[in-house]
Amino acid sequence: MNLCFHLGIVLRKTRENMKSILSIILIMTIAGLVLSCAFINRKQTEMTDSHLLSIRGTNILDDLGRPVTLKGCNLGNWLVLEMWMLDYRQSGIGDQYRFEAVLTDRFGVDETDRLMELYRENWITERDFQQVASFDMNTIRLPFEYRLLMDDDKPFELKENAWHWLDLAVDLAKKHNLYVILDMHGAPGRQSGMDHTGRSGYNQLWVDKQSQELTVWLWTEISNHYRQNPVIASYDILNEPWGGSEIELKELITRCYHTIRNNSDDHIVIFPGHYSGIDFYEDEKSILYSNILYTMHFYPGFFGWGAPVPQVHADFLSNGLVDWKERMTKLDAPLLIGEFNVVSKRGGGGEMMRRYFDRYKENGWPATMWSYKVLTQQGSIGEMNWGMVTNAEPLNKLDLLTDSLSNIEKWFINLNQMDYTVDSDLKHWLTTTDQPSTLDDLPPLPPPIVEAPGLDDLPVGWTATDIGEPLDGGQLVDEAGFTVYGGGADIWTDTDQFRFIWTEVTGDFTITTTIRELLNTNSYAKAGLMARVSLDQHSAHALINVFPFGNTEFGSRNDADAMMQAISGPFLEMGSANLKLNREGNTITGSVFINDEWEKVGQVEFDSLNTQLYVGIATLSHDNSRLTRAVYNNFKLINE
Question: What is the CATH number of domain 463-639?
Fold first, then answer.
């Protein structure tokens, strides 16, 4: 108003002396100032004062019809916990549900609620939103668990402080010019048996009608609360809903979509893909839905998707994404890449991540990497990095079972006080104007090993078994030890598939070996020492293993068909990775040799354990279309 008032004064003066050139110049100058200020003001408030984002064809648009590129990350482990992101090592505490259960058993429900609020106060604060923006990002995907909004014992009733954390995130995002994608990472009943839903081994959403009704009801309430909020870019209805069928998924997602639209809410709604992709939505898209996009998570180099090497990423960028672009053109919609990460520096690091962000931008697709912050026991940036930032110094030890209440409080508070190390390689490539190099001259990968080069006889008393029907393996035997060729998808969840060289052992034992080599067929290929109750693929067991990059892990399954739990261990130099597994009564402990001594990684105590166990070495490729190769030396078994 002040600028307009001054402009009016100038106009009156100009009418008094139209011949004054200076007056004419003054008019033009002030008018230009008005327009400039209006433009600057428009740029500063563009996100917060505009209408909701919308979709036209394969593009996301603002209210002026201009394409918007959503580039960002996930704020994982804040509003739903994943123990691996804390690098928390305690057997039996593999998810948020068990994390809270231990606190409740020790301190009661009210104290547990207070502690979890304290955790949330300190895991993410305003400095983290500032850090995200400094990576030249404009979006956060916000994973949350349904229990943030309601209690299990009070269904269809919002908590008194239901919106506190989501509102805080939205307010901080607005302050730092970031959009928010609301992501229901853990739904009522849980949408799969994975730990990232908040409760591993629990997949009831698809069979429990009340859980389905609660999911629809929660999205109705979320829509009521955020219906007109332009900071919210979109609603991600269910994260990785792998526990049900395509038909069940489509039915639940469309119900949520319609309840949102019935609220006169025009926010973008995200339809999640299934293991099989998104094609099962195709027949209804053009008729029934508006302002929607689809989502998939892409992890070349991980989870059975080839080795974490540049060639695998180059193939996906050149070929795999071309197929996806054709699919999205056919569906006439964008694709949210809700999670992705190169992780490995040897796989391409920050420069490869830049290539992905650039390609997604070219296609008009939003993309949010996983994840913003991941802690590690040793601290600092290493060869494998899931986070944009991590703890600069080694983590303080936390033992939920024995630490005092005050020590647990201090540990939570330190999450905010700790210094960060930023992945400078990633930050450089996401903020620089430099262009990545081409991938045209990468040497071809060696052909996969699909048949073992030998099947040597094993020492007397030892047997080789391919458990769970993996690709047939084999072994070479010499004075130094075993070279084992093994296939198999994994030793994980409630089912195993791998090559096992074993002997039957009665009573207590100690078994040790040095792993000289593990072929990098996948970053989750495994070589290690195992004791199991039976040769069934669902058997109870304990395992200490190393991965191709030298990171270690202790895993166990307490009962047949139960979900496996795992604890991360330190990184070892591949070529001299020394592992130990020992039994004392019903307790089995896994250790690694580091800093000139044996360090316990994990321990499991079984309720009861057979006197006789199958004990030996376990090898798997994590890609059952090929075999990995693992070299075991200095193999020793002591039966006490």
Answer: 2.60.120.200
